[in-house]
């Protein structure tokens, strides 16, 4: 088992390159090894393109070596026709004699069928190498498949004295956003946005900050913007309704004549369990992960319903003395990082 682990680590490393583009497919990593040398590697292409196994096999210059090679992959190869043919069939076609797989795919169209197809064809299959690390990498896809909802990441920035925004009287004098964190932390947030499928904010955040919710300080694709706007208070000159990025508005208003052109709308019952409805709608739209960026009421609602997986909390170096208090929550602290003048704490929901 130990000899397999370095190659599986490389698979996980490769798989991270597909975050934000492979979804709703899982972002898989694959390497092909011949006599302890990597002869091909790949990760999942943007949605609709080739899977990791296809890219790795395609990268092998001398295809005759495949008959003596071992294929490593973070997730069970697919066994069904989707937008692309089954990867298990391609492995069999090239008579690759051994496959080392991190974890099984819980998708009801795969779920052990890929492994069985390989074994039936005479391919030796080894399961469970770096299983926990593979599950951690595939947490978005696994949450979507196993819990029928997206992986939920809460994110906010707070002052040393525990506020996420200044008092409204201060905002009335100067409506521009009040940055609690430094530029490096803000750039990190844009990196996170490029890795997730959707970003969600409430009405007040839009009205007060007029955010773009894009990745202008990073590279990659901006996520789907999801905006809670119960009574359609947000006017069409706000950035979130400019049509530059796919946007989903969640509202209670059924009159479609009030909807902005080019924006998708879904109607919710704001008197019922709002978070469960949001999760259901995002699942319907094939959203594997969502970054909840605020405001305080929106974040606290997800916390109160205990529907979150991870919280990323920046603490800046300044104080407000009063204002909007940071969300109240408890979680398992898994990482602390200094980003120049800021501190980033990462929590898991325990």
Helix content: 25-40%
Strand order of the largest sheet: 11-10-9-8-12-6-13-16-15
| Low-pLDDT ranges | none
Oligomer: single chain
Helix/strand/pairing category: alpha/beta
What best-fitting shape do the alpha-carbon axes yield? elongated
Helix and strand topology:
Elements: H1 5-15, E1 29-34, E2 37-43, H2 52-59, E3 70-75, H3 87-93, E4 98-103, H4 113-120, E5 124-127, H5 131-137, H6 139-147, E6 151-158, E7 163-166, H7 168-173, H8 183-195, E8 198-201, H9 203-209, E9 224-228, E10 247-251, E11 264-267, H10 274-284, E12 289-294, H11 296-304, E13 310-315, E14 323-325, E15 332-339, E16 342-348
Helix pairs in contact: 3-4
What does this structure look like?
With 350 residues, the protein is α/β, with parallel strands linked by helices. The chain is 27% helix and 25% strand. The chain is built from eleven helices and 16 strands. The strands form three sheets. A nine-stranded mixed beta sheet has the order 11-10-9-8-12-6-13-16-15, with helices on both faces. Strand 1 (29-34) and strand 2 form a beta hairpin. Helix 3 runs parallel beside helix 4 (113-120). The longest helix is centred in the middle third of the chain and has 13 residues, at 183-195.
Note the main attributes of this structure:
alpha/beta, 9-stranded mixed sheet, 5-stranded mixed sheet, 11 helices, 27% helix
In short:
The protein is of the alpha/beta class. The chain is 27% helix and 25% strand. The chain has helices at residues 5-15, 52-59, 87-93, 113-120, 131-137, 139-147, 168-173, 183-195, 203-209, 274-284, 296-304, and strands at residues 29-34, 37-43, 70-75, 98-103, 124-127, 151-158, 163-166, 198-201, 224-228, 247-251, 264-267, 289-294, 310-315, 323-325, 332-339, 342-348.
